[in-house]
Amino acid sequence: MVLPALAYLGVFYVVPFFSLFRTSLSTMGGSIYLPKLTFAWDFSNYGDAFSMYREQIFRSFGYALTATVLCLLLAFPLAYVIAFKAGRYKNLLLGLVILPFFVTFLIRTLAWKTILADDGWVVDALQWVRLLPPDGRILSTAGAVIGGLTYNWIIFMILPLYVSLEKIDVRLLEASRDLYANNRRMFGKVILPLALPGVLAGSMLVFIPSVGDFINASYLGSTQNTMIGNVIQKQFLVVKDYPAAAAMSFVLMALILAGVLMYARALGTEDLV
Amino acid sequence: MTTEAGAAIAQTLDHGGLAKPGRNIRGTFKLGDLALRVIAGLVLLFLFLPILVIVVFSFNDPAGKFNYTWQGFTWDNWADPFKYPALTNALKLSINVAAVSTAIALVLGTLVAVALVRQRFRGSQAVDTFLVLPLTSPEVVMGASLLTLFLDIGWATGYTTIVIAHIAFQISFIAMTVRARIRGFDWTLEDASLDLGSGPTRTFFKVTLPLIVPGIVAAAMLSFALSLDDFIITYFVSGSTVTYPLYVNAAVKAAVPPQINVLATAILVISLILLGVGTLYRRKREV
B114 and A151: CB-CB below 8 Å? Predict the structure, then answer.
């Protein structure tokens, strides 16, 4: 019963990684219209990927990390309220959280372009209260890209957090009260440790798609905000320098894997999935 | 919606999103409690702001090619939602891709899920881990690796390669969702049915299938939505074929007609209705 699916994933998930790896070690020949790849154990693509796009690599990880932290800070109060304070409105609130994600991701991001436009009311208001200089803008800045990443993936933080908070036995909280814990101690000693699996899962679910994204950077950012995803996409589909693009993809995978392993080791690997 | 979102949604609905409604803890610190609710409200507002803009701008009467600034109210866009054949065709193609890929992935994914839940076999832990992997690899890398495969074997990218790619990310998603849904079932009911003289075929259709169908329907709906919305992976393997998200992306560079907003709003409303019907149906069954 498992074989058909495993065979399918073997052919269209595992084998493609070998193709990617092979391509990353090939050299390009032929013309741009008729590219010809020759396999050559050519590791120079990796060195080039690092040296040419170090800026984008660091930027991607910086943006994704910031977005992950922002998601955690914004999602925790909402998940907490839904899990502990919502009463009979719990299902309604969960529905409301999920609802926006039935609009295509691209169109949602496009809507932010309207909201943050230079002559839009958000920029006007911020200029009026002097939070933004008169010629200041939000669109095409790092802030807009990070904001877009935060918006697009915050649901992955809210839901796992909610799940782990929902699992907490309320009697534990009552017990901590009976033992004279104040709010802060109850939060720090009981709620937070029990919510850790959700924090871990949520962080990974936000970080991984954020670090590889290229839509937010291209819709909401400028050429100063390009990320690894933009480079990979451009190399593959516009410039058609396949070996360089494949090497970049592998660098991205390896860095994500290293990051996830470090994070998982720091917080413990139970409930990883 | 991206792949991980679907998995997270399914997981949440499963972990008793619809259970234990009356569980509250009382805050002893009134002001902090209020602040918490206000912040939660603001975060919800943040989630809904773009949606509001999308719906409002479906009634906009844009001056130029781009539906980015408010010009004036009109019903015209809603009167003629299929004004742009390229947009309509792209949406039709996406629905076609979503239906075909969901159907195939549903069969493959459900078989795995049922096998994993019903018996622990040698290597089932490994199968578990392997199934999660596609959900945690970045989409750019999945798209890129599929493209190199198709280049290697010399397949022209287009409709078929899009369907192949969608099935690849849907299998894991469906397997995880269905598995989560059917984990707690009492499989001895099957033995009971066999003991009472029903054959294996009759048992499957009369006992097994009715047990797992609600889980399968939910997985199918979310998986359909995932396919309809996928941009990044599709972008790599589409060649010159244009799906709905790809049309939107191309429009950003050329012209964004308000019909994009009209169709997005319509899809939202339809999803909402389906979600509502599903919830009511479940509630009715439980009562």
Answer: no
